[in-house]
């Protein structure tokens, strides 16, 4: 009752805060942006938030929150379009939707699949907001009992999710996660500032890689390159078929399935590290496992649409729980969301929930309203959005590259940002090609720094307590909460390994020959060996122990994989190479396509981004897009004008090149 | 010089030179103007954090008080603990027409004082126009604070844990102070901002902490009122003669200098004290400064000084500034120069003392 007495007035205050016209406007703006980003294949929450982050400073907290939450909340709603209409996941949260949504669309029932998906999304989103409301209340009194050991346990729980994401060959998952963690340790150590895999001669590396860049490189770049190579219109007809009302009825008929999947979504969201890339598969797996008649799954069973779509919107509410309460990001996009909160002068954590409950609750309302508006808009606008998907991806891709390059540059305002984006982008492409789990890599990266810091700190604090007496030491470490979390971790590893077979990042598993996969594996192992040796040579114990331990574990799994690779037949899952499947059959080669992007970056480093964009877009539209000269010019001018407008509104510079070092040019060429 | 000659000539033979004069700034006679120009206010940090707030607080005020009302935009050049942005500014020393200013912080001063190998900038090349200060309050849990009676002598057998961001950050000042007082403090490094240190204190994991003045008022005062924390001293503040006095925001609390004087083995002169004072001024008393490039003329410097003075003297400045800057004097003109001088110089002995101490106690080196 006491809880309700605090919650209801705060909820009321928050409601009146969010209903002011200006705040609503920002919410709607966020929703519109989120819908467009969701529709574009390959771009998800990370890319979307990276684009609005520069706007945040100086915004009123409620308005800024409305913008960010609106954006994040509806991406899993609109990403359904490309999953259903094109069979390409609109973001990682809708991968499972493709399995049954795309067949339905091919049978002429796209409208049915979409309306069932929107109904499920709406329900899931509202459910997530509801759960978040209560979580915040329940957590309030408990928050101070979460000390460093408990925080460490929560982070390790996140890392243990690698088990479920590992993919077909568990050791490859361990390897990917280990690489992600090692990538997170590059630069000055958080405790003593010792350098790891970097030197003062390259100041860029000393700060380590920024999440925005890693996220874009590992997820967005490989997807865009892969789609670009196929050079297809995203969809052929842009027609939706029939079944609007049928879809809604379908959802109502399966409302309990929808509820169960929404619960799964919230739980997955709450666990740090697990994000969109798993939630849809878990929900789909659960739907398949509990169904009586499984024969239709994969051929257009509407339950295969309802399950993932109910869960992926619900996970945003869940993901906000650790983010707001502990400041531990629930996923990659939540980590960027945290950065946005800092810009709004808000520090998530106990303080915020205790003293700014009304502002915190505007997040809940934004989430709920955004879901309603988002689902509504999707239904109303679906006919036109479907038309959008008939545009050839080749025409969209250069704009996406342009946006990604601009967003990446905002992270450090250094041309090295672009080099890092490209280098990590190539890594992302190869991880995807050889079926190493990219979600596992990203989890490792996101949680790397926190794990290291917490391990060191717990060690120090516990050490001081043990010096006082054994009892105070154990009392500190073994609280009921940390023991409970430990049990959950162990259980989740076991359940995770069992459930991992339902999670298929890549649906086909073509293999052919050992050479390419083994070469890549060898390179990865060699890097890990160098990184491990480098960690060994750090002389400050606190700064060395974490990368050294992770390095050794990763190195061991790399070596075991190499040994296995020499023994197993070339058709083993170890040797998956997507180039031998649909990717290899695509219209253009991988390296040629990547070469275009490389060209953009080389030109940028010579002449600066603006000149480079003109020199990149024009031939791209002419050659790859087969546009006439006039259309190419028009398309180029439009793109450049858009980015100039964006930059001038934000007061941003563009990446300069060698030319700018010798000649003073006016903005925007500076 | 060229400007004035042309104007004088133009005044006497107005008709003939109309074209020439009209190409010049309209108010050239009264000094330079930035009409129609854009001033870039560069800070070597990202948008989040104190420097971002500070710069965005002053930017609109400058736009209003600078002659010609230029657009003032804040640009962020973060990287390598702010040394990357400062190195960049060092390369822009010929842009002295008043369209570029640079904001520094303690994090920019510390590597310079310590001789960090990444530092390729030289503070003495730059021309200071503003120095903003802040302060800090040290507090203890009530049970330990009972033993504190104006000196630290009775606290020397206590094992202290302190949540710290890192030994070469602003935390250098408290860590050195604790050492001088003879306290046994184990820093737990890698804490996320001062807020993280406060949370460790609230959870009982750390048992000594400090917060900057504004954070103390916002977050610790409530704990003090509830009897969960007891403030024991402040870092103090600088008076006009460059001496450390009580912090004007907390006049009832003694300064570190007073405590040090009262504590056995703590000296307020000598190498350790010189070192502490240099880093205190650099990190707190003159924490944030605005600089013009070397090539800026005296006219431009005066123009900025006048504009900042006008902004600071404006009605309502104190109220709007308090949540962002705290209630500390904003130094301009000669006062800013004096602050700059103190914040960027250290005796070679004091510097060596700090470097040796960092190496010995924390195994932290700046190779």
Automatic annotation (TrEMBL), chain A:
Checking InterPro entries in the record gives: DUF112_TM
Q: Which UniProt keywords apply?
A: Membrane, Transmembrane, Transmembrane helix
- What PANTHER family does the record point to? BLR4373 PROTEIN (PTHR35342:SF1), TRICARBOXYLIC TRANSPORT PROTEIN (PTHR35342)
Name of one Pfam family that matches? TctA
Q: What is this protein called?
A: Tripartite tricarboxylate transporter permease
Name the source's superkingdom.
Answer: Bacteria
Transmembrane region positions?
Answer: 26-53, 110-139, 151-169, 175-195, 202-221, 262-284, 320-343, 363-386, 393-409, 415-431, 474-495, 515-533, 545-565, 596-621, 633-651
Please state every residue range assigned to the domain named DUF112. Answer: 24-442
Keyword Zinc part of the UniProt annotation? no
Automatic annotation (TrEMBL), chain B:
Does the keyword section mention Coiled coil? no
Q: Which family does it belong to?
A: Belongs to the UPF0065 (bug) family.
Q: Coiled-coil stretches, from where to where?
A: none
Check the record and name the InterPro entries matching this protein.
Answer: BUG, Bug_dom1
Q: What is this protein called?
A: Tricarboxylate transporter
Sorted keywords for this record are: Signal
Recall the taxonomic lineage recorded for the source organism. Answer: Bacteria, Pseudomonadati, Pseudomonadota, Alphaproteobacteria, Hyphomicrobiales
- Signal peptide position in this chain? 1-28
């Amino acid at each position: 009752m006491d809880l309700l007495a605090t919650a209801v007035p705060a909820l009321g205050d928050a409601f009146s805060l969010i209903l002011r016209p200006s705040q609503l406007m920002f919410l709607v703006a966020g929703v519109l942006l989120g819908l467009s980003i969701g529709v574009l294949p390959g771009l998800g929450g990370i890319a979307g938030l990276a684009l609005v982050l520069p706007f945040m400073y100086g915004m009123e907290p409620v308005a800024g929150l409305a913008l960010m939450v609106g954006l994040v909340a509806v991406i899993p709603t609109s990403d359904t379009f490309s999953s259903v209409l094109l069979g390409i996941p609109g973001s990682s949260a809708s991968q499972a939707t493709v399995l049954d949504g795309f067949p339905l669309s091919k049978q002429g029932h796209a409208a049915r699949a979409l309306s069932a998906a929107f109904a499920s999304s709406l329900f899931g989103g509202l459910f997530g907001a509801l759960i978040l409301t209560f979580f915040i209340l329940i957590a309030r009194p408990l928050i101070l009992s979460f000390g460093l050991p408990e925080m460490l346990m929560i982070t390790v729980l996140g890392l243990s999710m690698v088990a479920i994401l590992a993919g077909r060959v568990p050791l490859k998952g361990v390897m990917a996660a280990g690489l992600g963690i090692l990538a997170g340790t590059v630069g000055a150590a958080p405790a003593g500032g010792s350098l790891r895999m970097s030197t003062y001669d390259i100041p860029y590396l000393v700060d380590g890689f920024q999440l925005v860049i890693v996220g874009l490189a590992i997820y967005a770049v490989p997807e865009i390159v892969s789609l670009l190579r196929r050079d297809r219109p995203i969809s052929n007809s842009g027609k939706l078929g029939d079944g609007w009302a049928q879809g809604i009825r379908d959802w109502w008929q399966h409302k309990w399935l929808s509820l169960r999947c929404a619960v799964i979504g919230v739980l997955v969201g709450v666990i740090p590290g697990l994000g969109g890339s798993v939630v849809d598969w878990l929900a789909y797996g659960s739907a398949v496992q509990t169904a009586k008649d499984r024969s239709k799954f994969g051929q257009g069973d509407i339950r295969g649409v309802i399950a993932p779509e109910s869960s992926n919107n619900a996970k945003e509410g869940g993901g906000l729980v650790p983010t707001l309460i502990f400041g531990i990001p629930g996923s990659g996009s939540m980590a960027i969301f945290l950065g946005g909160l800092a810009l709004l002068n808000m520090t998530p954590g106990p303080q915020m929930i205790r003293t700014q409950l009304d502002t915190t609750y505007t997040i809940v309302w934004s989430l709920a309203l955004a879901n309603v508006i988002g689902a509504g808009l999707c239904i109303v606008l679906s006919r036109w959005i479907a038309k959008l998907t008939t545009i050839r991806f080749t025409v969209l891709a250069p704009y996406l590259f342009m946006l990604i390059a601009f967003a990446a540059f905002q992270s450090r305002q250094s041309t090295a940002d672009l080099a890092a984006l490209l280098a990590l982008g190539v890594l992302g492409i190869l991880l995807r090609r050889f079926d190493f789990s990219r979600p596992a890599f990203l989890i490792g990266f996101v949680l790397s720094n926190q794990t290291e810091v917490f391990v060191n700190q717990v060690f120090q604090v516990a050490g001081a307590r043990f010096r006082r007496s054994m009892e105070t030491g154990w009392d500190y470490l073994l609280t009921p909460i940390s023991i409970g979390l430990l049990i959950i971790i162990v259980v989740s590893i076991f359940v995770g390994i069992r459930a991992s077979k339902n999670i298929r990042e890549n649906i086909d598993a073509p293999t052919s020959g050992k050479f390419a996969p083994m070469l890549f594996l060898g390179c990865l192992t060699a890097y890990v060996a160098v990184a491990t040796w480098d960690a060994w040579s750090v002389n400050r114990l606190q700064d060395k122990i974490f990368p050294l331990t992770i390095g050794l574990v990763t190195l061991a799994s790399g070596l075991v994989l190499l040994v296995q690779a020499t023994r197993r037949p070339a058709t083993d899952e170890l040797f998956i190479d997507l180039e031998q499947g649909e990717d290899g059959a695509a219209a253009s080669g991988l390296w040629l396509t990547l070469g275009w992007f490389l060209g953009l970056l080389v030109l940028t480093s010579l002449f600066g981004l603006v000149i480079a964009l003109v020199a990149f877009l024009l031939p791209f539209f002419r050659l790859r897009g087969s546009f006439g000269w006039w259309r190419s010019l028009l398309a180029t001018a439009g793109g450049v004008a858009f980015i100039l407008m964006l930059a001038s509104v934000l007061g941003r510079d563009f990446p300069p090149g060698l030319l700018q070092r010798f000649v003073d040019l006016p903005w925007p060429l500076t | 010089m060229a400007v004035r000659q042309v104007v004088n000539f133009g005044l006497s033979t107005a008709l003939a030179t109309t074209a020439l004069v009209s190409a010049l700034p309209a108010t050239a006679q009264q000094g330079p103007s930035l009409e129609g120009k854009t001033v870039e206010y560069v800070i070597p940090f990202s948008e989040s954090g104190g420097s971002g707030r500070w710069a965005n607080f002053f930017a609109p005020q400058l736009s209003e008080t600078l002659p010609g009302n230029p657009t003032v935009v804040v640009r962020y050049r973060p990287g390598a603990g702010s040394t990357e942005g400062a190195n960049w500014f060092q390369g822009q020393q010929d842009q002295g027409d008043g369209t570029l200013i640079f904001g520094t912080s303690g994090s920019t001063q510390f590597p310079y004082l310590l001789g960090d190998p990444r530092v390729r900038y030289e503070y003495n090349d730059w021309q200071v126009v503003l120095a903003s200060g802040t302060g800090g309050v040290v507090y203890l849990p009530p049970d330990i604070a009972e033993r504190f009676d104006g000196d630290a002598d009775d606290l020397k057998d206590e094992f202290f844990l302190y949540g710290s961001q890192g030994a070469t950050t602003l935390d250098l000042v408290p860590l050195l102070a604790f050492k001088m007082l003879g306290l046994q403090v184990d820093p737990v490094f890698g804490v996320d901002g001062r807020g993280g240190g406060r949370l460790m204190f609230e959870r009982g994991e750390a048992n000594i902490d400090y917060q900057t003045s504004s954070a103390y008022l916002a977050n610790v005062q409530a704990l003090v009122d509830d009897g969960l924390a007891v403030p024991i001293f402040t870092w103090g503040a600088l008076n006009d003669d460059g001496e450390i006095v009580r912090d004007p925001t907390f006049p009832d609390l003694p300064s570190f200098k007073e405590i040090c004087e009262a504590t056995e083995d703590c000296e307020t002169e000598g190498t350790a004290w010189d070192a502490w004072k240099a880093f205190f001024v650099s990190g707190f008393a003159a924490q944030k400064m605005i600089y013009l490039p070397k090539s800026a003329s005296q006219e431009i410097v005066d123009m900025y000084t006048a504009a900042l003075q006008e902004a600071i003297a404006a009605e309502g400045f104190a109220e709007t500034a308090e949540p962002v800057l705290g209630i500390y004097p904003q130094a301009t003109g000669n006062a800013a120069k004096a602050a700059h001088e103190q914040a960027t110089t250290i005796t070679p002995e004091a510097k060596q003392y700090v470097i040796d101490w960092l190496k010995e106690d924390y195994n932290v080196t700046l190779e």
